Amino acid sequence: MSSSETGERADPAAFDLAGGSANGAAALCLHGLTGTPYEVRPLGEALAARGLRALGPALPGHNQTPEDLARSTQNQWVEAARAHLAALRADHTRVFAVGLSMGGLLSLMMAAEGRVDAVVVVGTPLSLPRPVRWLVPLAKHFHPFLVKREGSDVRDRAARARHPSYDVMPLHSVHELVRLQRRVRARLGRVRCPILVAHGALDRTANPRDAHEIRDRVGSEKRELLVLDASGHVVPVDYDGEALARATAEFLGQYL
Hints:
Largest sheet: 7 strands, mixed
Shape: globular
Helix content: 25-40%
Number of strands: 9
Structural class: alpha/beta
Strand content: 15-25%
Strand order of the largest sheet: 1-3-2-4-5-8-9
Low-confidence stretches: 1-7
Number of helices: 9
Mean pLDDT: 91
Radius of gyration: 17 Å
Distance between the termini: 37 Å
């Protein structure tokens, strides 16, 4: 993990939060590439306060080392999401997916497969810039890791300093992300469940236009778009984190 600029890094551990009332609902909360469950925990806590169980696992290759992540694949990420949802479905009558960035792509995939009753996606990148898509398949063999000099895309400096994430981005993982993006884009029309699409207006990692494309292309009758004006990519721990947490809990609370 990165060393902090100031103070201690936040706890990156997976979480399983029991709701305060038995309403038979659960949410799978999925983090982004090189991130940790910490970055979606505020959303899980808001859902648990509404009585839902909130499960936030570490996806394959995460909460380990960059080398472990470089050996993981998008198929492993998808299979992990499917397995966690199946386990939740065995114990709960209503199951939702909440995902940030890559976790948003996985949540859209689960929604397209009919595995969830509603979905919330945040800062979800449908594609990367064309030069990146062209260069990464070759560059990953010569420069396997890209140093993240500016840290995580969080506008709140104090939040950015304590944000746990790898210091480097494995280019193999970026290539796997591109493959996952292609799969998800081809399936957007199959998403039929209610969806809330949220995005930080100051996001430098995922283009805010992608939120509009997701909203426009899904097949859901119930679809909402939320733009958070003061935040970057990792909205749940940025300036608009509390507003996003409230909106997430209110949106999913309609489907209990």
